[in-house]
Amino acid sequence: MQDTEELYREYSTQVYKFVFSLCHSHLLAEEITQETFYRAVKSIHRYDGTCKVYVWLCQIAKHVWYQELDKQKKRQADAFMDTPLVDLISPESQFILAQNKMDLYKQLHSLDPNTKEVMYLRMTGEFSFREIGEILGRDETWARVTFYRGKQKLMKGRSS
């Protein structure tokens, strides 16, 4: 096997071109190429000669590229999760949502105490019907029926 400098001199341009064909970014292709040769040097003892050196280096590069894609996906997902949903909605839509929310709570306030309590527990506490029944000393069916009837009253109130 060749020494490290010779390996780099002979194959770096080819590996760079291969990586660039994957990522279409000069800066990222340079970084991945460097990482590829770093990993190749660290694992040179595992190269068994069953394929050409160039193919082996491209396999390493492809693996590094896939790891970079995973990192990018994770960063995008993290950024999305860190962005409050309100920031993704236009100011006009935020205003309408706030108004609708206010109207809904006004209507909820007009319901009888049991129905109001079931509605609040279900909508804001996100409790299951079984849990609501348990909290209010009733059964799951009562909580379901009460919620359904409350929802019907609210829908009637919105349409009138």
From TrEMBL:
Residues 7-74 form the RNA polymerase sigma-70 region domain. It comes from the Bacteria. InterPro entries: RNA_pol_sigma-70-like, RNA_pol_sigma-70_dom, RNA_pol_sigma70_r2, RNA_pol_sigma70_r4_t2, RNA_pol_sigma_r2, RNA_pol_sigma_r3/r4-like, WH-like_DNA-bd_sf. Keywords: DNA-binding, Sigma factor, Transcription, Transcription regulation. Residues 102-154 form the RNA polymerase sigma factor 70 region 4 type domain. Pfam families: Sigma70_r2, Sigma70_r4_2. SUPFAM superfamilies: Sigma2 domain of RNA polymerase sigma factors, Sigma3 and sigma4 domains of RNA polymerase sigma factors. Belongs to the sigma-70 factor family. ECF subfamily. NCBIfam families: sigma70-ECF (TIGR02937). This is Sigma-70 family RNA polymerase sigma factor. It comes from Paenibacillus dokdonensis.
